[in-house]
Amino acid sequence: MKTDRKILMPYITGGVTPQWTDYLPAMAEAGADAIEVGIPFSDPTLDGVTIQEASNVSLANGTTPQSVLNELSETTVDVPIIVSTYANLAVRKGFCADLKAAGVEGLIVPDLPLEEMPAIEEGIDLALLVSPATPPERAQEIVARSRGFVYAVSSMSTTGERDHLPASAIDLATRLKDATGLPVLVGFGISQPAHAAEAARVADGVIVGAAIMRRVLDGAGPARVGEYVATLRAALD
Q: How far apart are CA 209 and CA 122, in angstroms?
């Protein structure tokens, strides 16, 4: 992951369209430094309505965890791919080996208790989440055990587009930057270029999911999504 500029990590739900991997090079060419690929899950805990809708569409398309990895393994894109999914899948024996075989470099598991982290096999960067409600001692332990980057949840809510960036996002990013040398990326509610710029005044970058998936669900193809990602890139630069 590039660290000589603010990091931009757009998200896409694997399998949301038959040609979903076409979005990956479009995002990279528009300035993404890494791309989060969500494996659709039928019982999410942190995904808001937009990403839930994307997951339902993808599952209706017949998407499975293995089909997402198979398609990723056939795709060449010049930025790291970070997969996100839930603990029921992530702790499955051999799952991380399958990620590596597909060329995936990192993993996000939002419902993984810190105590269950040993169940995730070595060999993959596991980014752990910290929320504004995480007690300081617990946050310190989480950042110490994160690999790759630390995911700062902007507010106590599910994913989704927001009108403004919560003040809690800046407060949390500031605390985490003081606690770790790993990149701190802010996610949840980053949907406008101004949000990205505001968060990146403190954080090392942003993760943008629902705003992209709303466009995909509304029919935007790779070129139009790339145009939107380029506006985020410009705001961060």
A: 27
